[in-house]
UniProtKB/TrEMBL annotation:
GO terms for biological process: branched-chain amino acid catabolic process. The active site is at K202. It catalyses: 3-hydroxy-2-methylpropanoate + NAD(+) = 2-methyl-3-oxopropanoate + NADH + H(+). SUPFAM superfamilies: 6-phosphogluconate dehydrogenase C-terminal domain-like (SSF48179), NAD(P)-binding Rossmann-fold domains (SSF51735). This is 3-hydroxyisobutyrate dehydrogenase. Its main location: mitochondrion.
Length: 328
């Protein structure tokens, strides 16, 4: 009788293992269904490439067709509009410059919501007004789709290396589905709460980043004027209490670090225009919530002036160069 029991138990274990393996295999195959991607700029392009490298077929589009060529050469399918992407994919990521672009891509005449399928997961990694994210979520829900905001931190370098940080807002029950895709493009994926909270976290982060970069640029400039070697000064800062990301990873003084925009005449990286835009979002939300942000407001003013003085298309760390020129 005991032998019969053991035999039945072993048979049951083998059957259970077979079912589990079949389930995993089925799940793995399902996870490799096509992913839509809209917006192939400095950030979107390397993000979409990382999806391809992880075995996901990608269906992509961009307002500038030439932006699609490199991705197409890697095997992505390129279509004409966001609506065409929505027709072919039930998981879609968007990475766009501003709130108006997001509104157009989702709700415009050729927008995603014109042809979105019920049950589609929509993940927006743009940095926009949290109120716009909430509006898009409502519009998507009316079409039977789910919208989540998942803005990123880390810049172009982190996007290329799949080391971005994603700040995710949306229905908690959809977080695991979003996380599966986002971990292909980032090292950190953090759930922040309901729709719009990802944007809130990103806006706060970028306000601090802007303030920190201005402080680092001022410090490096002052030290150089006092006769300190910039590399030596950076070394001291980075082993002292003044250390920050702008000093040890993205130093704004030319000649201190390789592989950063300051080593390349401030080309590439995160544009001054985009930083000014993000600080504008921080200013608006601070006004709406009656939150004092004196340094954030001053940073916004500085980057807006830089845009007017010819720095709009340079990396935001060019604030160092801007301050040097102000000396004259």
């Amino acid at each position: 009788m005991a032998a019969l029991f053991r035999g039945s138990r072993n048979l049951l274990l083998r059957w259970t293992k077979h079912v589990d393996l079949a389930f995993v295999s089925s799940r793995s195959m399902a996870s490799k269904t096509p992913i839509g991607f809209v917006g192939l700029g400095n950030m979107g392009s390397p993000m979409a490439k990382n999806l391809l490298r992880n075995g996901y077929p990608v269906i992509a589009t961009d307002v500038f067709p030439e932006s699609c060529k490199e991705l197409q050469d890697m095997g992505a399918q390129v279509v004409d509009s966001p609506a065409d992407v929505a027709e072919k994919a039930d998981r879609i990521l968007t990475m766009l410059p501003s709130s108006p672009n997001v509104i157009e891509v989702y709700t415009g005449p050729n927008g995603i919501l014109k042809k979105v399928k019920k049950g589609t997961l929509l993940i927006d990694s743009s940095t926009i007004d949290p109120a716009v994210s909430r509006e898009m979520a409502v519009a998507a829900e009316k079409m039977g789709a789910v919208f989540m905001d998942a803005p990123v931190s880390g810049g172009v370098g982190a996007a290329s290396l799949a080391k971005l940080t994603f700040m995710v807002g949306g229905p908690e029950e959809e977080y695991n589905a979003a996380q599966e895709l986002l971990t292909c493009m980032g090292a950190n994926v953090v759930y922040c709460g309901g729709v719009g909270t990802g944007q809130a976290a990103k806006i706060c982060n970028n306000m601090l980043l802007a303030i920190g970069m201005i402080g680092t640029a001022e410090t490096m400039n002052l030290g150089i004027r006092l006769g300190l070697d910039p590399k030596l000064l950076a070394k001291v800062l980075n082993m002292s209490s003044g250390r920050c990301w702008s000093s040890d990873t993205y130093n704004p003084a030319p000649g201190v670090m390789e592989g950063v925009p300051s080593a390349n005449n401030y080309q590439g990286g995160f544009g001054t225009t985009l930083m000014a835009k993000d600080l504008g979002l921080a200013q608006n939300t601070a006004t709406n919530t009656k939150t004092p942000i004196p340094l954030g407001s001053l940073a916004h003013q500085i980057f807006r002036v830089m845009c007017a003085r010819g720095y709009a298309n340079k990396d935001f760390s060019s604030v160092f160069q801007f301050l040097r020129e102000e000396e004259g």
